[in-house]
Protein 1
Amino acid sequence: MQKLTGLIVAVMGGDAREVTLVEHLADAGATVKTFGLPVSGGNIIPCREPEKCLAGVQALILPVPGVNQYMQLHSAYLERPLKVTGELLALLPSGSPVLVGMARKPLRELVESIGLDLVELMKLDEVAILNSIPSAEGAVQMAMESMPITIHGSKAIVLGFGRTGQTLAQLLSAMHAQTTVVARDPAQLARAVAMGLKAVHFNELMNCLSDVDVIFNTVPAPVLDKDVLVKVPSTTLIIDLASAPGGTDFASAEELGVKAILAPGLPGKVAPKTAGRILAQVVPRILLQRVKH
Amino acid sequence: MQKLTGLIVAVMGGDAREVTLVEHLADAGATVKTFGLPVSGGNIIPCREPEKCLAGVQALILPVPGVNQYMQLHSAYLERPLKVTGELLALLPSGSPVLVGMARKPLRELVESIGLDLVELMKLDEVAILNSIPSAEGAVQMAMESMPITIHGSKAIVLGFGRTGQTLAQLLSAMHAQTTVVARDPAQLARAVAMGLKAVHFNELMNCLSDVDVIFNTVPAPVLDKDVLVKVPSTTLIIDLASAPGGTDFASAEELGVKAILAPGLPGKVAPKTAGRILAQVVPRILLQRVKH
Amino acid sequence: MQKLTGLIVAVMGGDAREVTLVEHLADAGATVKTFGLPVSGGNIIPCREPEKCLAGVQALILPVPGVNQYMQLHSAYLERPLKVTGELLALLPSGSPVLVGMARKPLRELVESIGLDLVELMKLDEVAILNSIPSAEGAVQMAMESMPITIHGSKAIVLGFGRTGQTLAQLLSAMHAQTTVVARDPAQLARAVAMGLKAVHFNELMNCLSDVDVIFNTVPAPVLDKDVLVKVPSTTLIIDLASAPGGTDFASAEELGVKAILAPGLPGKVAPKTAGRILAQVVPRILLQRVKH
Amino acid sequence: MQKLTGLIVAVMGGDAREVTLVEHLADAGATVKTFGLPVSGGNIIPCREPEKCLAGVQALILPVPGVNQYMQLHSAYLERPLKVTGELLALLPSGSPVLVGMARKPLRELVESIGLDLVELMKLDEVAILNSIPSAEGAVQMAMESMPITIHGSKAIVLGFGRTGQTLAQLLSAMHAQTTVVARDPAQLARAVAMGLKAVHFNELMNCLSDVDVIFNTVPAPVLDKDVLVKVPSTTLIIDLASAPGGTDFASAEELGVKAILAPGLPGKVAPKTAGRILAQVVPRILLQRVKH
């Protein structure tokens, strides 16, 4: 565990993930001022007002989903939503790091306009790969809940073989699903072969659809369009893990009677504690690198 | 697929599993008379009265759970429960096979007193092993739904290394849980080692409990008694797969604040179609062996 | 580690396995008198004469292969072979345990005629299962050495799904060979399915032979006879792990140009230290149970 | 299989890999002129002189290792070595593709100076990943041959988690070695964790060395220097897969009594047919892309 003694950070908003993160930061020696989180204990200073929370800190940690379209802080515990404004953020020392999972454009622009140092955690390869573990399990859990058959012996297709696709395809194969990976990059197809998976180029996708129980999409592009969906048996389940709006033509799926589920943000939903531990593994190093001493 | 042409069998009561079974038997060429099942099609003769269903058949297939304590047929579809009586069963030719998953004592005695040939499918090693697949997945699904962490990286204990224990421990290990098998038989412990699992004798159980996220019990004996439960962290989840009443002292668990779930009969609940296919794989061979020609 | 303090045992003959065993027994506190082994150290008393070695001991451990057809002790280190006679064994106290891997009939009869307690270690399920690990690896190593292709992607058949067959088939599958298990017992076939392996009844063997790279036999019966061998491509490799004379018609194989290797006793050959550790895990418990106090 | 009808290519020198490649290209419809290879059959034109071999072709395929330091063609079959010269290569049409596994600097400069299109196959991610399969198996085979213990249960370290490291670490783990990955890049460490492997930063390497049976190095830099080697038990085996001169201080290893083996070019040695098939999978696409029509 990296020692954070002497560091003072604010954590505002969030859910069970941030609870785990705050406890870890405090254990590591940081002083953690919080707003809107049910935490307490040594090194933790819960604040009732956002301004107080930011007073004297060296860095701000926002929740993984950041803010909604109204610039309101994502929060599982606050009764009244908090709007994130320039005045509020300006309480931070200039150049301070502001950590967030993903930032929509308005938040990014706001943070940068004030001269703060925005860090989007989900863009870090390390975080994205670690998050692929709860994402993959969450996807499998959804398939288990929605299918009348076991994963074992089922015919599964995984579209895309990036960070989430790799973890998911290996998990399905380990559970003895007949797993086919569909990807475009020859190097990714070669990696799938090395892992013992059946690998197929996207050009061949149409030939794989007549006998499939479940399709998992990880590609953030319209890959499951109507032309593809008409080839899929109506009993097939589609689980789309790509960030909203996903890669599935959901309207066509419904029309064709194919059950399709958009499932973004699984880590925080199915395994908040694991998701919090992933933050707790990465955030200390980033704070030590970015906070000016 | 084994041909069943010429065979006439009755299937009474049941749930989605029996639907799958009936369709398979009819596909294989048998004439299937049904009572209380939403099926139809070639070779299938739905009957409104149980007596008509039994007329002229060579074998009777009862649902997996058989009858309840009032001798009422297990059924997911019948509006009024049907009591299974000696008069009804006596409509079958003497010596006919009567297939059922598990028979409570009264049903077993009734069937045998009439001179019919009772076959309890769940007692067959083959069926029990195949059913261990949906049981293991169902147990994992329950753990996923109840835990705030992923299976990946979790610390899991599997008590018992028989038919279900083997399948479950291998599944957990394949999903990268840190899996410890606890068993008594040196040969079973050796098999666990050969499978790459950590294996511990039951005598050492007490030393494994201080840091465990989930315990799965498959032993039909009181192994998780109060003495054991007091050693378990209160955040630990217990899933008991042993047939009722399980191997857990549930009252003590509740008292100690340890969440414990009794989860019998998982195959029919979490993967009815797979459970039906398992029946469909085994039943034809048994019919061909047992029906007198 | 089980304490053996106070125990006095003789270990006569043997190879690297017995070296590992002797060291372990001495570490556990036993006094170990040895004949024909390059060992020394605390608690170990090397003896130049077999009679001295047996004086005052409570148990005798013979090498895994026991004696040859001339009753000569198996030994990797003795310059002159030692014949095991009744007079020699009679130096042991009546009823003393005599441990050996496998005993041919003459040895068994001799030991029992003197009133000693013969224990054949390889007949213990636990030992046979643990030994299946080096057997399986040794078989894979032989296949690697003899084939111009990788195990990954190769088409492999495993005949028999007992103790060695299970370990070997799981190893091949883990290495991403396309593995087919051929067995007769429905429960064994079900177990293979649960492990995610392709399982085929022996009746169907003939249909699996046209496209196979390597066949591993574990069945101690003539399963690979001429009728089967004529169906096998001449490039196929056969590795027969069944105890001599194996299950292959080697003459026919040679005639047909199919390379077939009989490979008994792999653990001592490919991984003598692991094989010794397996003995070291089992022997202490047996000594504690069998030696009279 | 991609159709190569109409294409005329030369394959000069090589070993069993090129035999497999030539057969595949001819099967796909190409006319293949060969020099120094024991092949024949439809579409294959063996030539006795290198000049005749090059006449009229559109592309040249050299052996995987290319030429040695004297510019002599690598060949397993030629009695007299062939020197590759500018005059010879100039027989090819300007701009023709020249495929080779790896080109030393002189060959690269020669080919480019004549205006030919050099393609180094081993630099393609796809080829390197596919070759990691036989490399990893070859490394495991060497470990099996050199160690008195099984891979199962052994303590293994894999240095580097690139293309070969990933495949090798997954193979070892699948064989139930206790596998530790040592790498530097946080994203690679995260991927190792996602694969269920123990992952350690290079900074922590020194703490992992006291109890290890085998170390596989894949890093082409001096990572196993004297400071590291003194910490390693003398029974440890080192297998260095990095391209020559490897990453091990072999002199120090010998001095310290640690067995260390440099093992480059494993695919062609342990599984030439698999290595040939990998070429056969990649070369047709490259020919179709690069040959001018």
Protein 2
Amino acid sequence: MTFRTGRHFLQIPGPTNVPDRVLRAMSAPTLDHRGPEFADLARRVLDALKPVFGTSGPVVVYPSSGTGAWEAALVNTLSPGDRVLCFETGHFASLWREMAQSLGLEVEFVPGDWRHGASPEAAAERLDADIAHRIKAVCVVHNETSTGVTSRVPEIRAALDAADHPALLLVDTVSSLGSLEYRHDAWGVDVTVTGSQKGLMLPPGLGFNAVSEKALDASRAARLPRSFWDWTPVIDANEAGFFPYTPATNLLYGLDEALRMLAEEGLEQVWARHARHAAATRAAVRGWGLDVLCADEREYSGSLTAVLLPDGRDADAVRKIVLERFDMSLGTGLGRLAGKVFRIGHLGHFNDLTLAGTLAGVQMGLELAGHSVGPDGLAAALDHLRTN
Amino acid sequence: MTFRTGRHFLQIPGPTNVPDRVLRAMSAPTLDHRGPEFADLARRVLDALKPVFGTSGPVVVYPSSGTGAWEAALVNTLSPGDRVLCFETGHFASLWREMAQSLGLEVEFVPGDWRHGASPEAAAERLDADIAHRIKAVCVVHNETSTGVTSRVPEIRAALDAADHPALLLVDTVSSLGSLEYRHDAWGVDVTVTGSQKGLMLPPGLGFNAVSEKALDASRAARLPRSFWDWTPVIDANEAGFFPYTPATNLLYGLDEALRMLAEEGLEQVWARHARHAAATRAAVRGWGLDVLCADEREYSGSLTAVLLPDGRDADAVRKIVLERFDMSLGTGLGRLAGKVFRIGHLGHFNDLTLAGTLAGVQMGLELAGHSVGPDGLAAALDHLRTN
Amino acid sequence: MTFRTGRHFLQIPGPTNVPDRVLRAMSAPTLDHRGPEFADLARRVLDALKPVFGTSGPVVVYPSSGTGAWEAALVNTLSPGDRVLCFETGHFASLWREMAQSLGLEVEFVPGDWRHGASPEAAAERLDADIAHRIKAVCVVHNETSTGVTSRVPEIRAALDAADHPALLLVDTVSSLGSLEYRHDAWGVDVTVTGSQKGLMLPPGLGFNAVSEKALDASRAARLPRSFWDWTPVIDANEAGFFPYTPATNLLYGLDEALRMLAEEGLEQVWARHARHAAATRAAVRGWGLDVLCADEREYSGSLTAVLLPDGRDADAVRKIVLERFDMSLGTGLGRLAGKVFRIGHLGHFNDLTLAGTLAGVQMGLELAGHSVGPDGLAAALDHLRTN
Amino acid sequence: MTFRTGRHFLQIPGPTNVPDRVLRAMSAPTLDHRGPEFADLARRVLDALKPVFGTSGPVVVYPSSGTGAWEAALVNTLSPGDRVLCFETGHFASLWREMAQSLGLEVEFVPGDWRHGASPEAAAERLDADIAHRIKAVCVVHNETSTGVTSRVPEIRAALDAADHPALLLVDTVSSLGSLEYRHDAWGVDVTVTGSQKGLMLPPGLGFNAVSEKALDASRAARLPRSFWDWTPVIDANEAGFFPYTPATNLLYGLDEALRMLAEEGLEQVWARHARHAAATRAAVRGWGLDVLCADEREYSGSLTAVLLPDGRDADAVRKIVLERFDMSLGTGLGRLAGKVFRIGHLGHFNDLTLAGTLAGVQMGLELAGHSVGPDGLAAALDHLRTN
């Protein structure tokens, strides 16, 4: 790679560009995690998290990845051999299925084409059929980071309600929380799983579980072995502003600052900003004569757009050119989408001109890779930005 | 608390004072964890970790606390109902025992008085008696952070060897690695567990497992459910410089810098520095007419010193005065030592004058709390520093 | 202003976007400016500055602005009542003239139209006419930050040589050094004046004088009062790596890092990069149907482009929209250009996609301000970037 | 030097240990110095400076060292050949005298022994004798950084008043402002000169002039050539939150934070803290059987203590040992005090335990250099800290 100057464009769908404010906050000296100053910080952060999840209940914070937070959701609520209903929405849903199986759960996996979200109709059908209530949890990836498709969680909830089914609703919001509209309490979610490195604008290293009363009840009977992930000692220690083991102090400093930024902007405005940037990005994709992977406009993702190339064209060749010539990272195609799509992240700490630079880089990269896309894509995106 | 000026003295036995160099390194922009620049970083860090553990085998890095790394050690090597041999060396050994029980293991717990390390004699006795080899692992806390006692790991190893016992040897080095002499390979340890926030001079947020061949073999048969903690996918992905889930990028930046610092100083010199500071601290404690909690001089810890107050005196009262008057955090007495001891951390990024300031603060705090300790403690410590 | 998210686009022609590496370097603890570690730093920085100026002679570093470095150039070389030849190339040349007058010098000011550089022909004429050698110094602004016009310094030197005129040649490179080709020794410059906040990629706060032998000789006879700016004690103290008064330590840390970055990229490559971005910017301006202020293509600036709006159109209205809607700072019209031009900085730590974002912001801002410029400007710029 | 670990002890009398908060604030991205956000910052900082100087008048901030601010005080108020009254209080007073001479002023220099402050009696005598009012300014160094002696400025003012003398009173507070009691308005000072790197807790790089109405009047008639240092354009531009040339943006960020810290602690408390630490330091010096250089207890400095060694003993040998063995920088003897004294800075961002570490280092260094000082010095200092 040639020498790079200027700022790298990190336009993968997460980790996202961490704000300078957050990086500076994280560089404060580490403090005593058993002292009064830490307790103030912890309580402030734990309170400020609630509105971001849309919950009045507890949010458990782990020093972990988002994947760790998935494991926490499962081991706290389920017992060996329990059946869970999952939906093949893409790569991350598939990984979650594998995790469930590794932990000794039985997975009912609704097949999918990786261009649609979790099907509320299929959910309804499976739940209705489960008269014995063998399904103990329904697992949905709210925003599939591998596809840029956003599942309609309230409709999955409605399916549960219509079937009068007692299964828990577990939702992965790794690439949606703090970017897309999300309401843990109002949507009747039992465990919301997320990580720090996307809409929360932090480096990776924190995992989260927002937990409903019903999930807490379930955790009392759940028999998957658990210790590190156990909610109860965390929630108990959090009362006083502490943790049962050493928390990731400096990431919590960053979280404190990031939550302040989200509050300053306002969640509704944050969601609107992401939706607007996503719409501009899709305008660009269409202007280039290419397809957005997401096949249902009700499920367009506000945080990333997966661009599908014509058959026989290598998406990774575009990514390579864009990285080498323009110092921008784009997301690769994952799993069965390898080589077929690239993904543009437009989430987190982001603005119009960074999107413009991003789309300019994609457009030039496509041309250089031999796609005669012309300038209309970027022009259409700018029209959208300018007039909305 | 009154307004604080100057630098806080963080003299708990970890988290330790993170070097400015490390904090600055951590504030670099987050990058693409699937890109070539990250792969270079990951390989460099994974290589540089090996000599610090004294191993030529793999070191698995988790986005987690040290406690998480304990769980990893257990779930990768053991099966439900397996028996493990633990030693009641203090609070953290007791927590590890609880974790093992929570995960479905059966713990044989050698009782202790919290003033000695794991007894090689007791180990020999239990192992010799275990003709059926029901004990699958021996768990030792190398340096008990709650007591300032360092167990003699090579003698435990010798007991295993003498008994020709196949049990794995799992060692917690959370408060010793990068501070005290430690040799994973040479000492025949199977899993070494540690965290980032002590001798590695980072904020908390990373957990580590150094893994022997024998442990890897054991992991193939182990049946405790595991997914997040599973070594295999991590070790496989690490080959190419990647991780199976999003790693804690910015902590890895810091680790890269911290490992550079350890290499610059030289591990032998790092160990000698800690030993020298510990000896100076004990000289101070004796100069004050107080007792070091550790009852066996072969087991004095180089990274912290627990100071035992006379019966009826409240150690937390001293800590409170020291925090409020002198802006220094000392370690509290944990578990059964609550109120009886305070702990002085002298590990990590540390030097003679910071130790002098630390001991001056303890001395003044003791006086203010009504202990007529006089000036001889600090004077003895300075004598030690000056003449060694 | 609405809430801002993402990174501000600081596209004024300086201060420029300071690299994160430089900001982090500046945040290291301040050290003893009389100690050995500082001396190492100072010598390293003073050496590394020389190639950037293209000199083998001394470079004097002041804790000051670039304006202070102008004053240093004058008071070290001239005496009360001395005549200096200046050229009305724009706002900063006019300020330099005023400074010379304030300090008691007599200024011969060659008038100009603010669209051309210093005229070598006019220089030749004035110098030829000055048979008595009353002109003691010729002052040229290499790159007029107010107009985006680069004077042809070698041709001014040629005029001095042709006239066999002994006047000193003083050159302001505030917005060109580290961005445009510049050669202090090869071009026969006597004092090169610059500041830290443009091509050197630092925050403002340092001023520089590169000094020829001839200028040093002149300083021995010069009689303008001087103390703070006096070269001699600085150059003398610099031998040992020190300064006669407290230097701006942390800015020097940043300078150390910035010079490392310039060396990594390579000066020739730095110059080529700036020229390429300038050409792309001019392509955009033409694509919008607007005029570049600079009227002579030999004098196009590589570091900034001033865009001239049609008569009656307010350039500051465009700037205001761009700042409020797109969080980008553009340069205002200065002096007689107020309201008539805006200036786009494309210098320092910069890259293709940031330029693309910048030009996208200008294009949208022009449209929103009622200029029907259409999308061709940005498209032309991207064509240039993609194919060069 | 051997490898250094832990934090360097920067105990020269400035630059001082910059708080982490300030370093972090300084690492924010540079912004447009002509934009609205900068104007807010500038106005906030300029307002917050006033109480620190004890003035309701303007404070002019230069991108410069404190020495530059001296030059500003002289060139704004005086004319060639003007007489100024200076006092030989130490090295910095001597440098100021040299500067005045270099700038074309005539200096009446009251001799001194470098162990006392400016003599109010001598001042009275000289002023009374100056019936023709040829003395245009009286220059006093409030706190002589080379000696640790604080001149009694109010008594100098009283001498001026008693003589009914119209001379301006110019005071250097480089090592006192923000540390020692100081009141520009109440004490009738005309120009207060300071720098950023001591009590203001910033890195070096900013110079300051607080300016009285009378000084402003004098500036209208003063004829020393000036341009960069001219108060008027700065004060005029400051009205709107701007500067006539590019200000040192990132140091201003730091100043903003440092002023916030001074306000949080409270100036009276800041002064008391410095006085207390100075008293403890003197107790140590006496406990070691050594002499404080300052010979008049009314003039003890709160910000530094110069320690006088017995005849024939080399103070720099002590400093060298302390630096190499204990990684602490102490101030060297300057000018005629070279080798005779070392100076302990106890100013700025500082606290009891850092002082304890500092004095422990000095005590050990003295012993190692062959001074049998024993432990009583540090013990006495700690007694003072503990009981006050």
